[in-house]
Write a structure and sequence with these properties.
There is one protein chain. The protein is built from 6 helices and 4 strands, in the order αβαβαβαβαα. The C terminus is likely disordered. It is of the alpha/beta class. The chain is globular. A 4-stranded parallel β-sheet has the order 1-2-3-4.
Length: 99
């Protein structure tokens, strides 16, 4: 569907039932390279979050979605990177900016 529709933004859960969100994002990235990808998950494992941000532009915890998801979608559409407030203290975004 991503190849056919070329969406501007896709919101993906890390824990999809048949294909995990990271693999789905990699496929979308190949088929629709201009699609902004925002991950929505309750997964807080640092390595998973880093892997997601290596593919996508945003990572929102489900527990923050009510307050942050719509704003995150708008932010990645403008070319910004987004990380849930609860994860911001992990220094993930600073690590990415320094590399």
């Amino acid at each position: 569907m991503a190849e056919q529709h070329q969406p501007t933004t896709a919101v993906l859960d890390i824990g999809l039932p048949r294909l995990n969100g990271l693999d789905a994002a990699r496929s979308i990235r190949k088929l629709a390279p201009n699609t902004n990808i925002v991950f929505l998950s309750e997964q807080r494992d640092l390595e998973v979050v880093k892997a997601a941000l290596a593919i996508g532009s945003g990572y929102v915890l489900k527990s923050d979605a009510g307050d942050d998801l719509v704003a995150a979608i708008h932010s990645v559409f403008r070319g910004e990177r987004v990380l849930s407030r609860q994860l911001a203290n992990l220094g993930i975004m600073q690590d990415r900016e320094e590399s």
